[in-house]
Specification:
The chain is elongated and about 70 Å long. A hairpin with a 2-residue loop joins β1 and β2. α1 crosses α3 and α4 packs across α5. It is built from five helices and five strands. The longest helix has 25 residues. It folds into two domains: 66 residues, no CATH class; 94 residues, 2-Layer Sandwich (Alpha-Beta Plaits). With 173 residues, it is of the alpha+beta class.
Length: 173
Amino acid sequence: MGIADRITLTLYTFFMAILSVVVILFSLGVFPHETVHEFIQTIEGNWIFAVGGVLVLLVSLRLLISGLGISASSSLLLSESEKGKVHVGKTALENYIAVLSQEIYGIHNVKVIVKFVEKGIDVRINTSIEPGINIPATSKEIEANVKESIKKVAGIDVCNVELFYKQIKSKEA
């Protein structure tokens, strides 16, 4: 789920919470029935409420699709023949790249995000590195190791490797 979907979900949840409180207060008799009936009568023929309803419906559908993961592929087709298809999962690639990265001396707490692109995959590696380790040299080593291993194991081209060092600190036991 991307940042735009998270913001939309937050706003939508806030809106639904307010609507729920209003319904609860109405059911408890805090709002007089006459006020609610007057409000409902203003809805008929008012295009602003129709637009609001359509927006809520569209946001609901978008969040449903995003939540189900329909909008993004979770596997990549490696090969296809008359006997079947071979897919590799996004999570499998992320876990494998995390293991590859942690094999490099001084690297720990690795989290990997793989994005499928037209000609292969893009990889973002979030990690911590120990003090005293040469970051440019280690970055080149990780990049080369990931590109070579993924090409050799899965036959996938790694188009881009982005490294983000979130901490420079010793590995905790």
